[in-house]
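Action item from last week, closing it out:
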Amino acid sequence: MKILLPILVIVSFFPLSTFSQTDNFRNAGNDTLKKVQLQEVEVTLKKKAVERLADRVIYDFSQQSILNSGSMLEGLKKIPGLIASESVDLMYQGKTLDVYMDGRPLRISGNSLISFLEGLPANSVDRIEIITNPGAEYAATSGNAIINIISATKASDYTSITYSGNYSFSNYDKFRNKTNNGILLASKFGAVNWKVNVGQSYKQSMLDNEIVDVANLRYDKALKYNYIRPSLTFNIGKSKLGLDYDFSHNTSNNDIFDNSTNDRTESKLSRSDIAATYQKIYENQQKKFNAKIIYSALNNKFWQKAIHMENVSKEDVYSFSVDYGTPFKFLDGAKATIGGRYDREDMSVDNNNIQSLEFLRNTLSGYAEVQTKLRKTDFILGLRGENYDHKGEFENDKIIYNEFKVFPNAAVQYNIMNSIFLTANYSRKIKLPSINSLNPNNVIYRNPNLTYNGNPYLRPTFFDNIGIKFSAFDYATLSYDVSFAKDDIMFLVENTDGNVSYLYQNVPDLRVNTFSVGLPLPLLLFTKGFDELMKFNFDINKIDILYFYLDYQKYNSAMIGDQKGIWSFFVSGQFILPSDINTQLIYKITTPGNYRYYMIDKPFQHTFDFNISKKFLKDNLTLSLFANDIFNTNRTIARTLPLANGVSTMQKLDTRSFGISLTFKIKNAVKGGKSPSNVLDEKDTGGNDIITP
C-alpha cells in the first residue's frame, strides 16, 4: 500500500494538457482519427489506446500491433481481465460476455464461438467495446455484460484501399502455418457511402488433451475462414438509411489420435446477417430516432468419421427495434429514451437427418431510461420489461417457458476532478441458453469413453450485478464488482466407471466477487523526474510506459463450497526505440485456485508475448514482427470440483508462434466524386455509421 498510493497520486496529477485533446469526446463513446485541414492549419485528434466510460471500456485494435498481429482470439487473450475458453466462452473480470459484431449478437458459443474468433483476423477490427454495465437500451437477454467487436470500415470522398495480412508458424511435433489476408475498399459517391471488407484466414494447430485414466487425445487441426462485409449508407436529407450484409464461412477439420485409434471430425459454420437501419438526424445531437430490421441465419454442420455421425443445427432470427430519445429541462439537463423491440428465433437440430429438437422463441420488450446531471454527478435510471414466449419439442416432450420479467438498472458517476471519476452501478439481466448448450447431439467429439452433449431443458440464468469503480485518465482504475447468478449454466463433468460425459446443467446459485486495479507508470518519471513530468506535454501512445493490472476473483456456490480464489497478474510495456520503432511486451499469469467449477492446479494463461513494429510511407505502411508465448508456458491443468469422483484434465495448445504482420493503406487511388480540399473523416462506428445496440 505504501507503494500504491504514490503511484495513484502521480497518475491523478498527470498534466491535464496531455489528455485534454480527447476529453471533449468522452461522451461520444469513441475517438476516431480525425484530420481537419483549414487552409494551412491542420489539427489531428488521435485515438486512445484505451478509453474508460461509465458503462464500458474501449480498446483500440487498429493502432496496436500487439493486439492486431494475429487472430481475434489471440488479441482478446491479451486484454487484462479477459478469459476465453470453450467451456465458459468469454469472461471479463468474472462476468460472462455476450458477443456482438457491429452491434448485432453473434448467437454462437462454445466450440463454434472459439473457432469463429480463431478465424477472424484481428487486423480486420477497428476496436472492441466491453460494456460492463449495459443500460435499459440493451436487450436484457444480453446477460450481465457485452463485448462488441467493431469492424474496421471507414469511408471518405476518395476511394481508399487497405490491405492487411500476417503469417506465423509454430513447430511442435511438426511445422504448422497460420495466415490471414484482408482487403478493405471504402468511398463516397455524392450522398452514398459504400464499403466492402473481404478476407480469409487459414490456421494449422495442435491440441493435446489428456483426461487422466480415460483418454489421451491429440488433435491436428486445420481451420479455414472466409468473410465478406459490404455496406451502403444513403444520406436522405437529414436522415440516413444504412444497408449492411455480413457473410462468413468457417470450416474446421480435426484429425484425432486416441491412443492406438485414429478419427476425423469436420465442422462447417456459415453465418449471414442482413440489416437495414434508419436514423433521423437532428440539429440537437441529444435527440435521436433509430429504427432497425435484422435477419440472421446460422447453419452449423458437424461430421465424425468413425461413428458415421452427422449433426446439423439451424437458427433463423428476425429482429425489429425502435429507439427514440429527447432532452428535457430537469436539473442540469436531462435526456429520456424510450424504445421497443421484437425478436423471433427459429431453431432446429438434426441428428443423422432426423430432427431431434425444435425450438421457437418470441421475445417482446420495451424500455424507458432517463439520464440527468446535478453539478458534478451524472445519473442514469432505467427500466426494461421483456415478455418471453418460448416453446420447444424434444423426444415428444413439450418445453415451454412463458414469463414476463422486469429489469432495472441504475448508475451514478461523480466527477472528482477533470478526467477522474467515481462510479457506482446496479443492473439485473438474463441470459438465455444458446443453441450450442441446448443441442442434445454431440458437436465436438465422441468415443466409447467420452461424450459431449447439450441439454434441451436448460433454464435461463438471471444476474444481479453491483459494482463500484474509480478511474483516472482512462488508464488508472480501481474497482470492486459482485455478481449474483441464479440458475447459472455450467459444463458438468461426470466420470462413471471410466466413461466421462460433459453435459450442460443449471446450478442454483453462484456468487462472483472481483477486485481489480490497473496502474500506468510512465518511465519519464525516472528519466525526467517528477517536476519535469508535470511540465511535459506528451502523447501517451508515444512514450515509454509500463501498465500493471491485478485482479482477484472468488467464486462461491453451494455446489462447490468455499474454495480458494485466483489472482491474475498482467503487465505490458511499451518502449519507443530510435526511428520511432515501437516495442511492446506482455506478461500474463493466473495463479492456481478455484475458477468457476474447476480447480486450477497449476498456473494457466501463463504467457509472455513480444511485438516490434515500425510505420513507413507517412504511416500508411505498418510492419510488425511478433512472437506469442515465447517460453511455451501456456497450458491448463484442472480438475472438476462438484463431484467426489472428479475428472482431471491436462490441455496444451500450440500457443508458441512467431510471425510477421503487414498493413498497407492506399489513399486517393480512385476519385469517387469530387475530392474536396477540406476532408473530415466520418465517425467510424462500424457498419454504416449508425450506433444502435
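Closing note: The chain has a mean pLDDT of 83.
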